[in-house]
Amino acid sequence: MTALLDVKNITVRYGSLTLLDDVSFTLNEGEWLMVCGPNGAGKSTLVGAITQGVPHSGETLYRGKNLKNVKPSETAKYIGVLQQSNSVGYAFSVEEVIRLGRYAHSRGFFAGRGQSGEDDETLVSAAIAKVGLEPFLKQSIMTLSGGELQRTFLAQVFAQNPQILILDEPTNHLDLVYQQRTFELIRGWLTEAPGRAVISVVHDLNLAKAYGTSALLLNRGKTVAHGNPAAALSAASLQTVYEMDVYKWMHTMLSQWED
Amino acid sequence: MTRKTLAAVLALLMTLALLLTACSGSGGGTASPSPATSTAAATPEATPAATPEAAAPADGAGTAAIEVTDQTGKLVTLSAPAAKVIALTPAMNEIINALGSFDIIVGRGEYCDYPAAILNIPSVGSGDNTNIEQIIALNPDLVVMATMAQTTEQAAQLEAAGIAVYSSDAASVAETYDSIEQIGALIGKTAEAEALIASMKATFAELSQNKLSGSIYFEISPLEWGLWTAGTGSFMNEIADIIGLTNVFADVGAWAEVSEEQVIERNPDYIMSITMYYGEGPTPVEEILSRAAWADITAVKNAAILNLPDNELSRPGPRLVDGAKALYDFVKNAQAS
Amino acid sequence: MLKPAKRREGFHPLVYLLFSAVTLVVFVFCVAVGSVSVPLSELRTSMIITGVRLPRVICCALAGASLSVCGCAMQGLLKNPLADASTLGVSAGAGLGAVTAIAFGITLPGLPFAGTTVFASLFAFVSLLAILTLAYSIDRTLATNTIILIGVIFSMFVSALMSILITFAGEKANHMIFWTMGSLSGSSYNNVLLLAGTLLVFGGVLTALSRELNAFAIGEENARHIGVNVKRVKLLVLIATSVLIGVCVSIGGTIAFVGLVTPHMVRMLTGPNHKRLMPASLFGGAVLLMLCDLVSRTMFSPRELPIGVVTSLVGAVLFVRIFYASRRAK
Fold first, then answer.
1. Which pTM value belongs to this model?
2. Which of B218, B224, B255, B263 should one mutate to test binding to chain C, selecting the residue with the greatest count of C CBs within 10 A?
3. For B282, which residue in chain C has the nearest alpha carbon?
């Protein structure tokens, strides 16, 4: 296996608060890493540090390149992010939002002046088709439902064509069907080409176990466990992090559905 | 769209209405109550040689020795001629000074600057920033003010503190005579007031005897800040009239921002600017001469431009005649050359 | 296999031709009509036209275009349709700069107005920095209410500083007060050159940032994730808008609301994409300010209304409309 991303000793401090304390892990090609932990564990801060949006110490290497020394447009070619939610202010069309995903690839004076490359067109069309937004292309994003909006930004990040996809709790506020559909789309994206990987911040431990190939359990900014999901999300480690018997609770919840 | 247009038009109309009321408020002396008649009764006009003290017993049937109705129609009473006075406007100070009573001034308004010695007297502010407490602390017998700068509330506060308040509303030469006469009565200088008025009248009569001709444009603020001029209702306009000049903007109110195009179109023979010069860059006259688009104006072609920044033509006081003379001499010289 | 169709986000060249034609018609109309009527035959020789009206109308067009482009850029950058030089208090800041230059007699040798222009731009930049720092530290999402509140507070603060300056300015006070009222009358060809130069350079910078502004208008976080250098773009927009606003304020005083009204009206026609919004606002702003100036010149002739009065009348009504709509949308 080849290491795609090397996260080394990331520490984030805000005044006297330590939000992340010396977190390190390696992300390999084909891996889907689930970042879990209770509120305030530092999950979103970790995403911010990796994408160079939050000041931090430590470093993140993409195929050996330190992202601190890489231009934002270059980073965007490696790493795409699907945010938790996007509030919209102006009536951009679905297509305009998706096309912006190509920003990092087509910059310069002639970019977007009627001369979009064929690469751009193919990737944009494919991304639109993948999420099934063809009927909505000309529609204003202000008129979309939460799920449709999330799919628009998913298509945008697909069009961006990164090697690593980071999902910051993207399905938190969506209903079950959308959650399931989104995760299937992402699994499809991960496996359709080699050399890709996914990092997901999730609250839902069921989703983490169902889709993750590895898991990172954080608590108060510190790594509690890291490894395959079964091991990292063991009964014992969950017990220390959540201060309750998570396994028992999950079983109780599930047993309601048995006839 | 139509609703928006309608709203804009309505708003514009409201602005127009405001402007119109503002004009009628300051436009000319017609708006002020006729104070001259009541004052005539209080000051014995028939006895020009009378001593100031003689004015008091002539009317003194009651306790009040001096009674004057000011230009707002309010009765001002003093038991004796005021010995400590605070004057809030430059013109008032100049009147008191011209009547030979500079030494009774114990406080001044912020913008009083003539004669220069006035600057040694403590300022009590003026307008909205008048320090009423300081005025009361100076314990004057009389405060003289102008309705243009002070409010009736301020006057009421002072009167409540037992200080007599005289308010002037002079917007014409005739009303300026009235306020000189009234202030003279209040400070016991009736004869001096009569003499001052007589001399002013004589000067104006002299100036109007040998009338000038031609048109003039008064520039209040330079082009860079928008052209403001003095129209009907301003002293400049009235004095132009007296000496025989035609104000090219007699059709606008006392103070108005006018269009540069109109100045060129109306082609004045003379220009008088009251812009101050701070000693840097071109002088106001040079600046006007350098305006490319003004080259065809008669006044610019003949370099017939007067810079008179000393407020002589805007203060309702004794120096109005000086300003009128300066303007008269300037035009006379320009015509001669 | 068919080649994917070529796509265009900006306008077709013919649309630009149409915009230019409309602007030209309005321009000619505004030059032909004025408080003094000049016969058509004398249009080219009359001093009133060539010396007064022509430079003034050109200045209006350039200032209108500059302010509108600034409004567009700020509204995109802050993802807030109410952002504008006047609502944010940047114009007030620029005015303070110019008044400071007058108060301390700051001039650059050989360049008239340069002192006020440079100071206005400098103060505009510092104001923008202060306002945004304050806004970000209070509310990272830069909600409409936060922005407006900070704009109001900042404007009050600046006007207090200006009052202090004027109080202690002594005999220069009159000139400073006249200055704050602002006026485009007396616009010279020097002003035209200054406005045209800054618009060409800094308006060009802003227009070249259309794509980045689109990204910001969708969301700053999202912009960062798709690869926009957010810090650099922010800095460029701040510098460009500061200089444009500084130059406009130093020449014409505070011309409120143009930067708010034009993008709003144009957006209804073109949609929010800055590739179309920016150039359309450029033309729209020019047309709007030329017409406002026409009203200010002719409505009460021979008197003149300060142009800021006309734009504020139109702008304030629209401001309420946008604010109302944005509140209802929540």
1. 0.82
2. B224
3. C112
